[in-house]
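Hey team,

Filing this mostly as a record. A colleague (T.K.) asked me to run one chain through the structure pipeline before their review meeting, and I want the input and output archived in the tracker in case anyone asks later how it was produced. No errors, nothing strange. Just documentation.

Input sequence:
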Amino acid sequence: MTEQDYDLSLVEGARAARKQAYAPYSNFRVGAALRTKSGKVFYGVNVENASYSLAICAERSAAVAAVTAGELEFEEIAVVADTERPTTPCGACRQFLIEFSPTLKVVVANTSKVHFVQPLTALLPCAFDADTLES
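Output structure:
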């Protein structure tokens, strides 16, 4: 994999954001950096809650920040966790992100290397989307 396959600054931004994660229960910190089609970058972290189902993932946190700023078209997201195995976006995040960008490039990394780059559609084939509602 070459640096042309992904935006290294997004990976570094996700690594830096990860340090701000609020994960007092699991200690599993995740950071995300999302670049929109306009070139703006939004950061997110996972935020846990004592009521576990109310936690929010880093990917959705970054996407919500982008939407709040009026950005609805996403190009690339880097997701970083401190794990040896790749930590991909969870199913809820995949579904959430595909709403805005089926062509989103997903970069999965840890604190020292990039594991892989995939289009979101490869991570969520046969997604439920607006076209599904029209059938």
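Quick notes for T.K.: The domain at 3-133 is CATH 3.40.140.10 (Cytidine Deaminase; domain 2). The first strand starts at residue 30 and ends at 36.
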